[in-house]
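User: Please predict structures.

Assistant: First:
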Amino acid sequence: NNMYIFPGVGLAASVAGVQQITDGMLYAAAVACVDAMTPEEVADGRTFPDISRIRQVSHTVACNVIEKAMMEGVGTKLTKKQLPDRAALESFVRRKMYYPGYVPLVDPSQVSVTRR
């Protein structure tokens, strides 16, 4: 379960400036992981969501952890005034997520490979 929970916990800690990770926040992360499962995944008897949805699961985990951090008063960067509802929180976290995009360093059409 670590690969499902901790990316979202780390994202939440970074985005919200969390001072400490509490037991309540870890519980909120676990609940978010379960809540992220689709009815089909549950019907298939899966324990965790499909790995192809890891970004979506991490987003859900991060949002739940941030909500809990705000309730517990351990976040330093966000306030309820800035994020008055779940939709605002989800949008904010989505904008803060890292989207890897790799640009080639060399134009492949300009390189010739010789084999020995």
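Second:
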Amino acid sequence: GKCRAFWFRFRNRAFHRLTSLTVHPSRPWRAWWDFMACIVICYEAVTLPMNFLDLEDSISWQVLGWFARILWTCDIPVQLFTKYNLPDGRAEHDLF
């Protein structure tokens, strides 16, 4: 009855709000985000093997390491809320 109708309305409103947060994949800041991810991948490709050499850890390497951690942590919701292009060229925005 009333409880089921309440949850149905609540679910639809929540789904609509989450769907409105989606980002088109060709937005300029998405290109910037992907570029930063590529830079971090290159940084990690160089520094991760160097961890086995037991070199002295400077403050700049620590800052760059934390920047990479923060970027990858933020990348999870960014990827979840990014639309994707369908074969016909339209952008799909449904989350589920």
